[in-house]
Every structure is written in structure tokens, then in C-alpha cells.
Amino acid sequence: MENPSLYEQLSRLRTATPELVRKLTGLFVPVTFRRGTLLSVPDHTLPVLYFIEKGVVRGYYFYHQEEYTCWIRRGGFLLPGIGYFSDSYSIEYIQFLSDTTVWSLSLPKVEVAMRSEPLFYRMLLEMYEIKVQEGKERELMLRLKFAEDRNLYARKNFADLFEHVAIYILASFIGIERKYIYKFKKKYK
Which one of 97, 102, 135, 153 has the fewest CB atoms closer than 10 angstroms to its CB? Predict the structure, then answer.
């Protein structure tokens, strides 16, 4: 499935206007990240809004020396992590799982340009609201009692990830052991 362009994605926001979408699109800068690059680490959050045009990105953290994948994105907006607005401590790492092309928007720079555009802030809130909803979808998946149910939910709601993400990362994302990814893949061919 082809990802929508930055312009298309901004235009889909309910709070967007064609004029504001044109202005904002002109402020984004293209950037390419190599596979394996860490964009963010604990205690270091960049004040940048990214739009993923092509590639795969994940957020993860460590707990008792185990790696846990929080989210995986193949397109859309990648918002600044915890700590940008609230100055809170973040435990998240953000890593590119493939060579990835993004559009980058420095929030401090855009704040100056958008002071006279209160709708910009509403657009930003709408982007955060979308991310909160996506987080709730994953939380629902993780609350499913049985590994097979979580796998089926993930295959239905995150199907494209099964083609683009390593098994150990998928297992971490779904909250099951790797062996079950293989078992369910074979069972549901």
C-alpha cells in the first residue's frame, strides 16, 4: 500500500485549511535516515515533527535488560517524544528499521512562522489525538488474554508490518514469543 504524501496527509486533518496546508508543507525539509540510526534516546528528545514518507520506524524501551517495542510506523506523522512539551523524562528509543525518507519540521522555527495561525496548534493537537488512538489500539491488542488472539488482531490491524519488520521486533510488539509468530504464520497460511 502506497503512503499518502505529506500534502495529502495534512489535508486529511479536520482542522486543516488549504492555505495552512500549503504554508506548512513549504516549511518541511526532506531528510533521509539510514537503517539502524537512533533518532531519539532517553533524556534526549528533539523538538521536531517528522512525516514518514517511506521506511519503517519503531519506538522501544528497555526493562530489566529486555527490549520492548512500543510502536512501529510505516508512514504518517512521527511526533516529538515525551519531554518536548512537558520537560519530562523519556525512556524511549526511536530507531529506523530501514533506510527511511522523512519530511522534517523544526517546531521552534515553525512556532515563529505560525504565531498568527492558531489553527496550526489545533492541527498539532489533532495529530497527537490520532497517535493516542493508535496507542489505544495497541493497548487493546496487548490486553487480549491469548497469544493467538493477539496475533490475529495484529495480522488484521497491522498486516503490513508482517512483511517489513523482523520477527523478534514483531514478537515484542505483539507481546508474544517468537516461536508463536512462526506457529501462527504456518497455521493461518
Answer: 135
Residue 83 has a pLDDT of 59
The string of DSSP codes covering 83-141 is TTTT------EEEESS-EEEEEEEHHHHHHHTTT-HHHHHHHHHHHHHHHHHHHHHHHH
Retrieve residue 91's grid coordinates. Answer: 525512556
| pLDDT of residue 62 exceeding 80 | yes
The pLDDT mean for the chain works out to: 88
Task: Take residue 43 and report the three cell numbers written for it.
Answer: 533524556
* Grid cell listed for 161: 508490518
- For residues 39 and 94, is the Cβ–Cβ distance under 8 A? yes
Domains identified in the chain and CATH numbers: 6-143 (2.60.120.10)
Amino acid sitting at position 157: N
As a whole number of angstroms, the distance between CA 56 and CA 132 comes to: 19
The answer to whether 148 and 176 are in contact (CB under 8 A) is: no
CA distances from 45 to 38, 41, 161, 168 (A): 11, 7, 25, 26
Of 80, 78, 44, the closest CA to residue 58 belongs to 78
